């Protein structure tokens, strides 16, 4: 069950970094939706390795093949099966880590949990799995688009370089105007410079992605364990390298007084809205029609080009040193993943909500 | 499905703040466990209203009645049904809010989602529901205790008053030594003073609870969507008033370099451990045997004793003012809830893990 | 998870025959439904012990108490918690079977599975649990009623006495006109006589219940594992004492030629229908608008007033003899249970189907 | 969710008869199992079209490709992704039925449910999907084999030709000794003759498959909705063309007296057993260590080579006549499917049962 996500619109994924292919099955996609397959592929391009100088130079075609569930251009309501072949299976690249437990990787935990693991490129623990989420998310985004709902994610910080403007002052159409995917060209340049310098030092760096859902209808999300933000949090925390999630006022809100934090409700021209949005568009776990916004914290990538102490499978002390082509910063490539997971959560809750009244 | 939590050890809850009773069903509790029912009741006492001057002065007996699943003092493996009567149903207290949408409450979203709601005391959106989680969590804690695993939650900050010591320097036996449940008597006094002052101002204040799981075995947690920290995050974010979750290095980790963030693995006297623990005891979503620690951010309580602008059911502008007995700060009473949800997640994953090898 | 049934409209039950109470939680009931609570109680009366001379003379009040989820007469969309107190806890009645494994009861399997069991009256394995299903089913039936869908179950056979008329020739309004719940007064008299004679012999007898769903809309049921008849089958097979399920042509259909079995599709006055209904209203797992009908086979009750060889807990050979008040035939009381489970399945699939197109 | 089966050992499938490929994902397969991939393929050969004169002469390679979850010959505990290419996509064969609603097929129900369907070869409603179940079942069978548990299915009847011997008197090693898969050579010849004659008449015929699980440990199955036979029933009823399921005494048991039906429990040489087995190896939904046996009724295949009245998409009356290569009787090819579904249910319950005690 742990390789599935969503209740009605439900994605199940499979695949290891260096196996034959990765892929997935989307169950519960509504029937009769005209899908633009090029848009799905273009989302994959945003996640693809080798797309710029600040991401891994590994090459993967990342071409998605749809195997079922779409007929004459439209969804049929039956499961959408798809796969993405692993065309870059350079297994020899990884033979040196076969018996190693790399620091802050999942080598040790997989070995102990399962007694056996595919060590090549991290196997199932590789972020390569997230390409499948991007496929499902791209479909969800198209369906949300038909409903007038949009999802926008962007890089908010890299290390200590952080956007100061609130998201309302940003132009989301600029997100893809630079290689770091920060819609502020000045901050973007600083971030790119920092990542590039970090890469030259053989090091890696973390950061924060912010996501914004606009035009979400009132009423999505389910009390009590299915709160919309709890599902968004679970979605984001399931992405590789994520260490934290907050929505609305978030951790800062914990320092505030209620009198400052509360969002007054008002009405103008028959439009109900709140005068502030510390609630992040969600009250009692249910969307209230305001923008939903949240932050996702990513740690620095664990593979660094420096020597580190660790153990091997026989529990002997060893020195580990990263080789090959790795991301100095995962943020630029993680933007479409955050988009995808947010879109899946919103669509899933949209569909569930249709069952709550007759 | 949204009122259930957990996969194998699974809690389903029901109940409104001012209905007849709240309660729940625990399905999948292992058979043959001797339960100390007094310990369960004592966890409820930690969550109970009226326990000190810094929490709501509302009185509720909060006596749990077990109805099934326990026979001759031991669990039978069949569902444990329980309820807690609502002895304090002062419905008239709430008639004044019958038609109001209180700011930053769930009144508006419930009304729009369901077209109809139990307005008394927040109905289902009331934090009263969490008493049921405390019951299930207290059972989970006892079972974890038999396995040598312990869960420790405490108040880390209230407003801007924050513990500076890392949790390793705290004495968890002091958590309940003061009414705010902060195991540092100096900070605790400051927090109590702040809450008391806030209450006198008719205001409320937020804060952070930290949770620590000690002696968790290696191997709990499931790739890829069932990562242990994703389940902990979902659990915590489902608690009323929670705005954020982070584990290990958390949001601070997003500013770090990989070379500083990585946890080297070492061995001493046949004990494998990491020399630092930015991973927060979880790598690739699977526990590695180190302490699991996390922070949970709570917003200030929405009900304040001040005038606020809002709308009523007919979308007319109104002035709302809190009445009655409310918490100026939810943190002291939320400590056993965080304990409970953490215990449920760990036990559930412990049981699931038993199915992963033959 | 095994004490829950349904995906959207989801019932979870708890309780042992001689515990404090049995009860359940209904999650996912649509909001805004006006419920007639008397109708729910009257369905319980149909299942209640002591209702006639051909059922157990045990007395249970079987009064359902609703604890949540209903406000001002209407469902709120939040979980409906309810319980039924066990007023007839004559535990001493059962002390003689404390250490016995009664033939064809669940004593032995529960003991071996869980290592410990509530032996009183069968504990969790008692059919008393089904009262909770009747409560949920009575709610589902009311909601289906608003949609124009009706469910009709009746006793088709007891032992070798079997209705010869097809259900189309029966008057469902007569189902409750006799104590065996067979809508054919001649056959009913024979059945009652057979059950009465069987009871006098200290024996028990099985039979078949037929269920019919009328006016089910086209499109309910989900390929491939969620076929409507697979869910009906799972529902019926989960009822105590059930040994078989068939729908439409059923086992007889296995002897037929395709040319005789196929149901031609035709149209008259814009109404599409089939000229025969061997499909039982379901094609490819999806309702086609025709009547859904099915048979459920019940074995004879295991408790008989005769001596039988068996073992005790210590694996010593013993002679077991039934005592107390037991049903000579479970069929009359099982009719509302079949009704209930069918209604839950149909409503659940009705709600799910609303998510299959935008 | 409806394209998934199983709770811990969980299969999700995708694919249409004439799409690019069919396939599936097995989540929750225990790690460290050495799989014999040839055995899996050989199970597929048993289901494959074209294998004998009494099945469809359509040709499909039905070669399974494993894409993940197996490394160095052993399962890794991560999802096993696989596909089977549709090499025989003769879409033109089906253009004539594009707008037809074939009698007793799912054409009409899919069209009305989804508003759009892949009409080629039945699309998702084709029994081709069951090849994926055979793959998962073959893996489950291997794992059960390591536990000493075996599953045996065979054709018990075709039309009115029925095995008279109880399964205990059959030699299961003869199941595959003839093309109809009935382990009694005399009956098998009669069945083959009947099928062949039926085929020549352009007609089809149904039948019954019996399944037997030997050496199942005591304790598998979960009260109350997860009864082992309820899960077996749901599994079997989800197979195309199945109309009924019964276990143990089944429908015949409904005619019996309790005094004849009850299975006495006895002990010999420390082996506990029952002197009869009307319970079919399951009491109270939990396996008791005796043989589990059940019958599955299949209707005749809907596609016949005769003229039938029906409607087209525009609701005009038409004459439908089968073309191409179809099965005159689905039974011989359904034997491995019944095997597969039984194996999945037993393994899944074996794994779940490991969580029921500490």
Quick structural summary:
The structure is a homotetramer of 358-residue chains. Chain A is an alpha+beta fold and 358 residues long.
List the secondary-structure elements of chain A in sequence, H or E. EEEHEEEEEHHEEHEHEHHEEEEEEEH
- Can you tell me the CATH architecture of chain A? 4-Layer Sandwich
Share in helix of chain A: 25-40%
Provide the β-strand percentage band of chain A: 15-25%
User: What is the highest CATH level, the class of chain A?
Assistant: Alpha Beta
Note the main sheet of chain A. 5 strands, antiparallel
CATH superfamily label of chain A: Chorismate synthase AroC
Q: Can you characterise this structure?
A:
The structure is a homotetramer of 358-residue chains. By secondary structure, chain A is of the alpha+beta class. In chain A, 26% of the residues lie in helices and 23% in strands. In chain A, the strands form 6 sheets. A 5-stranded antiparallel beta sheet of chain A has the order 1-2-3-7-4, with helices on one face. Chain A has a 5-stranded antiparallel beta sheet with strand order 10-9-11-17-12. In chain A, helix 1 packs across helix 3 and helix 3 (130-146) packs across helix 8 (331-353). The longest helix of chain A is centred in the C-terminal third of the chain and has 23 residues, at 331-353. Chain A starts with a strand and ends in a 5-residue tail after the last helix. The mean pLDDT of chain A is 95. At the A-B interface, strand 1, helix 2, helix 5, strand 12 and helix 6 of A face strand 1, helix 2, helix 5, strand 12 and helix 6 of B.
């Amino acid at each position: 069950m742990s390789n599935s996500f969503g209740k009605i619109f439900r994605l199940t994924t499979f695949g290891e970094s260096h196996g034959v292919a990765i892929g997935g099955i989307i169950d519960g996609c509504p029937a009769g939706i005209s899908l633009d397959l090029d848009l799905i592929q273009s989302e994959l391009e945003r996640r693809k390795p080798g797309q710029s100088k600040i991401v891994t130079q590994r090459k993967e075609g990342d071409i998605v093949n749809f195997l079922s569930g779409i007929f004459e251009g439209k969804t049929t309501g039956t499961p959408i099966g798809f796969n993405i072949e692993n065309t870059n299976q350079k297994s020899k690249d990884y033979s040196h880590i076969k018996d190693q437990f790399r620091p802050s990787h999942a080598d040790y935990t997989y070995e102990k949990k399962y007694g056996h693991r595919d060590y090549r490129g991290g196997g199932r623990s590789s972020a390569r799995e997230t390409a499948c989420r991007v496929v499902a998310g791209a479909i969800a985004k198209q369906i949300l688009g038909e409903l007038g709902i949009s999802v926008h994610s962007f890089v908010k910080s890299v290390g200590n370089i952080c956007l100061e403007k609130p998201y309302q002052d940003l132009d989301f159409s600029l997100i893809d105007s630079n290689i770091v995917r920060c819609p502020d060209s000045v901050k973007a340049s600083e971030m790119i410079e920092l990542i590039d310098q970090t890469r030259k030092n053989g090091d890696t760096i973390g950061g924060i992605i912010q996501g914004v859902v606009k035009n979400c209808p009132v009423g999505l999300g389910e009390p009590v364990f299915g709160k919309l933000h709890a599902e968004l949090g679970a979605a984001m925390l399931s992405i590789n390298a994520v260490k934290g999630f907050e929505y609305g006022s978030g951790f800062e809100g914990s320092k505030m007084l209620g009198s400052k934090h509360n969002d007054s409700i008002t009405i103008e021209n028959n439009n109900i809205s709140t005068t502030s949005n510390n609630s992040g568009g969600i009250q009692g776990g249910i969307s209230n029609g305001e923008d939903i916004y949240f932050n996702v914290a990513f740690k620095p990538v664990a593979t660094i080009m420096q020597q580190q102490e660790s153990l091997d499978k026989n529990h002997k002390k060893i020195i580990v040193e990263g080789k090959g082509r790795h991301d100095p910063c995962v943020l630029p490539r993680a933007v479409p993943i955050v988009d995808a997971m947010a879109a899946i959560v919103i669509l899933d809750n949209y569909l569930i909500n249709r069952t709550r009244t007759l």
